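Long-time lurker, first post. I've been practising inverse folding by hand and with some scripts of my own, and I keep getting stuck on stretches where the structure tokens seem ambiguous. Below is the full token string for one chain I'm working on. Before anyone asks, I'm not after the true native sequence, just a reasonable design that respects the backbone. If someone could post their per-position residues I'd love to compare against what I wrote down in my notebook.
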């Protein structure tokens, strides 16, 4: 699970890749197929530079389609402010110019200002880091202590026999490293298990790690309760639920 440490220069503009139904989180990976001309250009420029692309998501009801902002539109769909800055960790350029790539989430950020589209058509924005540790050393230490105290609760839930019945939870326990920081474990669990778009975006947009952990713990507890409730529901002789 270890990833290369990258230094991000937030003074530069970043390309935006808005994709409906996809919310990337730090420590997560999004497999992408790049086929539109403007996003092929975006990918080429990213690969020629630092390899960074900001994965954005649309405001609810903001459209559909590959990038949901067709060039013919007078006004492109509005984007939600929080984005995940990603690094192109692997890529393959196909003979026709399309790309297959893996975008590794590395940092939370928020859109400060969307700029005019690049001359090759893709959207761009100025970003700032979201949830960076502040200058208040006491507050940072308190947050770290809160995470450490609740790590045991997170580990216990992931090892819970009921939740272990979920294949995704069993796989998580196989490859999560004990030494992985709680904040990273929280993001990996969220990326793997949380399918609800609104909740996943809320976890991306939340800058405070202890609050993200609280949300993940509630999600796991709710999932466990729902599984137990389903098992306790009355069934007929064939195993079907009785209404």
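-- Answer (accepted) --
I ran through it position by position. Result:
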């Amino acid at each position: 699970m270890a990833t290369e440490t990258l230094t991000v220069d937030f003074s530069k503009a970043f390309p935006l890749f808005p994709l409906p139904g996809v919310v990337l989180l730090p420590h997560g990976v999004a497999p992408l197929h790049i086929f539109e001309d403007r996003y092929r250009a975006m990918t080429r420029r990213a690969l020629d530079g630092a390899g960074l692309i900001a994965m954005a998501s649309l405001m609810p009801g903001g459209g559909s389609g590959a990038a949901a902002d067709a060039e013919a539109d007078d006004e492109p769909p509005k984007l939600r402010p929080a984005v995940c800055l990603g690094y192109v960790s692997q890529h393959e350029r196909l003979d026709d110019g399309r790309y297959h790539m893996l975008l590794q989430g590395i940092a939370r950020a928020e859109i400060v200002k969307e700029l005019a589209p690049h001359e090759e058509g893709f959207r761009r924005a100025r970003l700032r880091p979201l949830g960076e540790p502040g200058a208040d050393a006491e507050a940072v230490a308190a947050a770290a202590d809160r995470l450490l105290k609740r790590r045991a609760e997170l580990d216990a839930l992931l090892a819970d026999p009921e939740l272990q019945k979920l294949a995704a939870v069993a796989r998580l326990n196989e490859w999560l490293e004990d030494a992985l920081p709680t904040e990273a474990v929280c993001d990996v669990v969220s990326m793997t298990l949380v399918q609800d778009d609104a909740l996943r975006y809320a976890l991306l947009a939340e800058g405070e790690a202890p609050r993200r952990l609280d949300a993940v713990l509630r999600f796991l507890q709710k999932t466990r309760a729902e599984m137990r409730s389903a098992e306790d529901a009355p069934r007929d002789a064939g195993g079907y639920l009785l209404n």
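A couple of notes from the structure itself: The longest strand covers residues 99-115. The chain has two domains: 14-129, 137-232. Happy to go over any region you disagree with.
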